Amino acid sequence: MPGGCGRICRTSPAAFREVGRVIRTVQLLRYLSDAPLRRRVTAATNKVEAFNGFSQWLGFGNRGVIADNDPVEQEKAMKFNALLTNAVVFHNALDIAEIVRQLLEEGWEITPEDLAHISPYLTEHINRFGEYSTHELGIRPDAYDPRLDVDFTPLRDQGPAAVGFGQAA
Fold it and tell me: For the whole model, what pTM was predicted?
C-alpha cells in the first residue's frame, strides 16, 4: 500500500464510534448481569471517592481552589496536596498497625476480615488549624517493624468479593 496507511485509514470515524457503542453496551450488560462485578466496582469506586474526599479535606487552603493561572504553579499545588495526602495516609497506616500489634499482644484475635474494614483516611486526630511544634524534628523515630503477625492466606485463596467488598450493592 502506498504510504503504508493500510485499511485503518479508510475506516470512517462513524464505524469506530459504532464499535465503541457496541463495546460499551456489552460491558453495561455484563455489569448489570454480574452481581459480584457490581460489588467490586462499587467497592473500588467507594475507595477512590473516600481518598478524593480525604485529599480535599487536607487541601483546605483557599477552599481547595487553585487560583493561579500558571500551569506550573497549578501542578505544584496538586503535587504538594498529593504528597501531603500520601504522608498522612502512611502515618495513619503506621498508627493502625501499632494499635493492631498492641491488641494482638493483649490477646485480642484480629482477623483479615477485621482489617479489611479499617480505612487509613482518618481525620479526627488532625488539627489543621492548630499550632504545630517543630522542636521534635531532630528526634529520630524507632525503626519501623512491618510485621503484623496476621495470617492473610485465607484472603489470597478467595476472590476480591470475600475481602469485605461484598457489603455494597
Answer: 0.61
